Amino acid sequence: MSSAFDLKLAASIEQTGIIAVLVVDDAKDAVPLARALLAGGVNAIELTLRTPAALDALREVKAGVPEMLAGVGTILTVGQVAQVVAAGAAFGVAPGLNPRVLAAAQEAGLSFAPGILTPSDIEQAIEHDCKLLKFFPAEPSGGLAYLKSIAAPYAHLGLRFVPLGGLTAKNMASYLAEPTISALGGSWLAPRELIRAADWGKITALSAEAVRIIKSTRQRSATTSG
What we know:
Strand content: 5-15%
Number of helices: 10
Distance between the termini: 37 Å
Strand order of the largest sheet: 3-2-1-9
CATH architecture: Alpha-Beta Barrel
Mean pLDDT: 96
Structural class: alpha/beta
CATH superfamily: Aldolase class I
Helix content: 40-55%
Number of domains: 1
Order of helices and strands: HEHEHEHEHEEHEHEHEHH
Number of strands: 9
Shape: globular
Largest sheet: 4 strands, parallel
Low-confidence stretches: none
């Protein structure tokens, strides 16, 4: 079975350190939103299928801001996998682990990160050759301490995690310092209300703050390990 997530793409996401998780109500906001995120240094997004505008927003970003790495989240059905692939998503993400959806994504060649919350979820992911996993909801379920506990038995397998849910600029550094964390899911970078208000300056400021924290945390980690 082929890997569930393209290794080069996974490395690119890890280098980025954060994926802006977005709920877009109007596709016309997609391009200025993507540009605002890029201006703050964030170059990866997950457009969630929580609104009918998500796939049109993806097409707008791909056409208007091709330098943005654009994936789709909240993929819940096999049918959505086909729609996401047709729209040209770079990757797909789900809040949970549905074996049928995961199999469809692999069959379609879509890099896919399922959501996990328990050891059983992790073992199902391993069964499907997944090594990049979404940890959701991160903070409400016990945060980093809980993730470290459930991930410990699988440490020798090289799994990488993208936590999402309850993360903010105040608690993101602790996650980033953990070696098993690939990147963060940043829903606070561009909240729905800021997108609706077209407050691109605020989104750029939030993005720049997060990127600063990523760089400083990684520099400290490198110094400590060195």
